Q: What sequence folds into this?
């Protein structure tokens, strides 16, 4: 069995590549929430079936997005451990020490809690808008 060894520079590069991947998952998450809330706010007529379908589809997306964030977070933590166990090149050791001191990825539990709280707030916002549409519709029907 051959053993593959990565250089310190390759590990640092891989760490930041995983950081970029994580940033893309969060960006996608924010864009989807924005689109969902925009869609929900533009709708004029109440429709619980549509609201329920949007809620279920968002839950599916949020579940898969959180899974991807979990995987990338685990990868970043593993790479950081490998960085700390390897030796930087002698010529750049002080600079690498400065860099290493700034690498503090959040633990997954905090990331998960934030994601789930955001998921719940998004769902509550969708249903609050749906409830408001029903109240407006009922008020218009009573006044007619």
A:
């Amino acid at each position: 069995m051959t053993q593959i060894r990565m250089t310190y520079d390759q590990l640092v590069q891989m760490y930041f590549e995983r950081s970029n991947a994580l940033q893309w998952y969060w960006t996608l998450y924010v864009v989807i929430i924005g689109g969902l809330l925009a869609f929900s706010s533009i709708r004029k007529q109440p429709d619980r079936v549509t609201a329920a379908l949007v809620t279920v589809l968002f839950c599916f997306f949020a579940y898969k997005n959180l899974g991807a964030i979990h995987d990338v977070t685990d990868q970043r933590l593993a790479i950081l451990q490998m960085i700390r166990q390897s030796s930087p090149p002698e010529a750049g050791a002080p600079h690498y020490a400065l860099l290493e001191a700034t690498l503090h990825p959040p633990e997954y539990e905090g990331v998960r809690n934030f994601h789930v709280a955001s998921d719940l707030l998004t769902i509550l916002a969708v249903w609050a808008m749906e409830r408001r549409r029903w109240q407006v519709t009922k008020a218009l029907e009573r006044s007619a």
In short: The chain has a mean pLDDT of 93. The chain has one domain: 8-88+103-143. The two ends are 81 Å apart (CA to CA).
